[in-house]
C-alpha cells in the first residue's frame, strides 16, 4: 500500500509552497513517523531539512516553538527557514523548512572515534540545553535519535516535536528516556526532566551490552533506578561520570546551568585517548586544546 507521502517525496520531485511559492527539490527521505515526514531538500545549491505533517495542531505547535527559538540570540537563531503548505493528493499539507545538520548519532560517533569523546559531547549538549531552557522551553523528547554529532563533538538537536513550554505537561516522549517510566518523577516540563533524559541518553550510548533495552521491557513494578546504576558500573567511561549521572537520575540537578558547571568541574583534566582522526596538525592541536578541560575549555558563563 502506498503511503500519502511516497510520491511527493520521491527523489528528484519538486515541492512548491502554495503561499510563498518557493520550490524545493527532494534529494532523499530522512525519516517518517507518527508526527511527520522529514526529507533532505535543496533550493539552488543550499540543502535544508523539510518536515511535513498531517497532525495540524502538533505541527503548528512545533512551528511556533521553532519560530520563537529562531528569534533568540542563541545557536537556534535562524533555525526556521520557511513555513508553507504543499498540495498532496489534492489536499493541503503544512510543512516547514529548517537548517540541515550533517553528522551522525552519538552511538556511531563514539564507536568510530572512541568513548572518551563523551566528555566533549556531553558538555556541548548541556550548553545547547541551557540555551533552550533560558528561552523558556524544555526539549521533552531528548534521545539519541533526536541529536546529531559532527566535527569535533559539536552537537545539534533535531525533531522539535516534543518541545514544551516550562511548567506544562510533557507533550511527546520516548518511554525509556522518561523519568515517569522509571518512577523517578512527574512528566512535567522542567529542566530536571531534560537532565534525566540526558543521563539516560549517555547511559544508552555507553551501554555496550545493550542491557538498557532489556530493562525497558520489564514490568513497571520491577523497574528501579538502581538497575541503571548497575549499567553505569559496567563501563569505565560511565564510571568516571557516575556522580553526575546519579544526581541527574535522582533529580538533584535542578537547572541545566548548574548541570553544565558540575559536568565541567567533573571532567576537568580528562583527555581524549589517541584518535585515528586524520587531520592536519594544526587542527589536531586545536582539537586537543579544546578537550583538555581543566586548562583550555573556555568559561561559558
Automatic annotation (TrEMBL):
One GO location term (cellular component): cytoplasm
SMART domains per UniProt: S_TKc
Keywords in alphabetical order: ATP-binding, Kinase, Nucleotide-binding, Serine/threonine-protein kinase, Transferase
Protein name: Serine/threonine protein kinase
Domain of life: Bacteria
Keyword Metal-binding among record annotations: no
Zinc listed as a keyword: no
Domain Protein kinase: 24-282
PROSITE patterns: PROTEIN_KINASE_ATP, PROTEIN_KINASE_DOM
Chain residues that bind ATP: 51
GO BP, one annotated term: intracellular signal transduction
One family name in Pfam for this protein: Pkinase
Molecular function GO labels: ATP binding; protein serine/threonine kinase activity
Amino acid at each position: 500500500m502506498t503511503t500519502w507521502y511516497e510520491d511527493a517525496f520521491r527523489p528528484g520531485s519538486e515541492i512548491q509552497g502554495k503561499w510563498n511559492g518557493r520550490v524545493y527539490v527532494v534529494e532523499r527521505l530522512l525519516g517518517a513517523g507518527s508526527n511527520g515526514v522529514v526529507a533532505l531538500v535543496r533550493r539552488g545549491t543550499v540543502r535544508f531539512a523539510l518536515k511535513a505533517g498531517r497532525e495540524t495542531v502538533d505541527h503548528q505547535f512545533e512551528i511556533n516553538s521553532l519560530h520563537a527559538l529562531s528569534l533568540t540570540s542563541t545557536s537556534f537563531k535562524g533555525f526556521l527557514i520557511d513555513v508553507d503548505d504543499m498540495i498532496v493528493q489534492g489536499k493541503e499539507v503544512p510543512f516547514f523548512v529548517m537548517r540541515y545538520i550533517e553528522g551522525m548519532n552519538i552511538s556511531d560517533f563514539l564507536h568510530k572515534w572512541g568513548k572518551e569523546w563523551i566528555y566533549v559531547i556531553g558538555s556541548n549538549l548541556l550548553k545547547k540545553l541551557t540555551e533552550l531552557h533560558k528561552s523558556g522551553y524544555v526539549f521533552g523528547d531528548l534521545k539519541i535519535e533526536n541529536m546529531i554529532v559532527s566535527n569535533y563533538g559539536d552537537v545539534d538537536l533535531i525533531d522539535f516535536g516534543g518541545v514544551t513550554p516550562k511548567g506544562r505537561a510533557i507533550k511527546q516522549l520516548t518511554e525509556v528516556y522518561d523519568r515517569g517510566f522509571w518512577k523517578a518523577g512527574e512528566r512535567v516540563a522542567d529542566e530536571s526532566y531534560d537532565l534525566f533524559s540526558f543521563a539516560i541518553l549517555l547511559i544508552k550510548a555507553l551501554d555496550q551490552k545493550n542491557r538498557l533495552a532489556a530493562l525497558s521491557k520489564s514490568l513497571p513494578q520491577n523497574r528501579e533506578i538502581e538497575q541503571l546504576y548497575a549499567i553505569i558500573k559496567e563501563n569505565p567511561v560511565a564510571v568516571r561520570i557516575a556522580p553526575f549521572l546519579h544526581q541527574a537520575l535522582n533529580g538533584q540537578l535542578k537547572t541545566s546551568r548548574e548541570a553544565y558547571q558540575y559536568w565541567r568541574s567533573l571532567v576537568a583534566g580528562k583527555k581524549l585517548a589517541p584518535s585515528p582522526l586524520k587531520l592536519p596538525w594544526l587542527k589536531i592541536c586545536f582539537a586537543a586544546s579544546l578537550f583538555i578541560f581543566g586548562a583550555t575549555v573556555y568559561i561559558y558563563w
